[in-house]
Amino acid sequence: MAIEFRGMTELAANDKKIGKLTAYPKWCKGCGICVGFCPTNTLVLENGKMRIAQPELCIKCRICEKLCPDYAVYFTEEDVTGDV
Ligand code: SF4
Ligand code: SF4
């Protein structure tokens, strides 16, 4: 399932100050929410844990970060101003 959050994704894709997508598998309970809502199929569920399978597809919409109930996927505070 992939749901498009059009306004949100376009807004976020233009924000070059969002840092690096990071997973913390120890906190992941494998609920699959982030995988289901990611609009670009960046994430997969594998052996009961989420894995960032195709980071190059991520548009930095931050939906996964907002929806994860366990803070197991997040963006670093790293400043990546410039081309992303
Ligand atoms: S920020 Fe998360 S939900 Fe959005 S594209 Fe990247 S991996 Fe998918
Ligand atoms: S939403 Fe959070 S807990 Fe659920 S699969 Fe994704 S990273 Fe794991």
How would you describe what is shown here?
This protein is of the alpha+beta class and 84 residues long. It has one domain: Alpha-Beta Plaits. Helix content is 21%, strand content 17%. It has three helices and four strands; from the N terminus they run αβαββαβ. A two-stranded antiparallel sheet has the order 1-4. The protein has a two-stranded antiparallel sheet with strand order 2-3. Strand 2 and strand 3 form a beta hairpin. The protein starts with 5 loop residues before the first helix and ends in a 9-residue tail after the last strand. The model has no long low-confidence stretch (mean pLDDT 83). It binds iron/sulfur cluster (2 copies). The site of one iron/sulfur cluster (SF4) has 12 residues, from helix 2.
In a few lines, what is going on in this structure?
The protein contains three helices and four strands; from the N terminus they run αβαββαβ. The chain is an alpha+beta fold and 84 residues long.
Q: What features would you highlight for this structure?
A:
84 residues; binds iron/sulfur cluster; globular; two-stranded antiparallel ribbon; 3 helices; Alpha-Beta Plaits; alpha+beta
CATH topology: Alpha-Beta Plaits
The CATH level-2 architecture is identified as 2-Layer Sandwich
Query: What strand line-up does the widest sheet have?
Result: 1-4
Our measurement of the CA-to-CA distance between the termini, rounded to an integer number of angstroms, reads 26 Å
Q: What is the CATH C-level name? A: Alpha Beta
Question: What is the average per-residue confidence, as pLDDT, rounded to a whole number?
Answer: 83
Query: What's the number of structural domains?
Result: 1
Instruction: Quote the beta fraction.
Output: 15-25%
Determine Rg (CA atoms, Å): 12 Å
Question: What string gives the helices and strands in order?
Answer: HEHEEHE
Low-confidence stretches: none
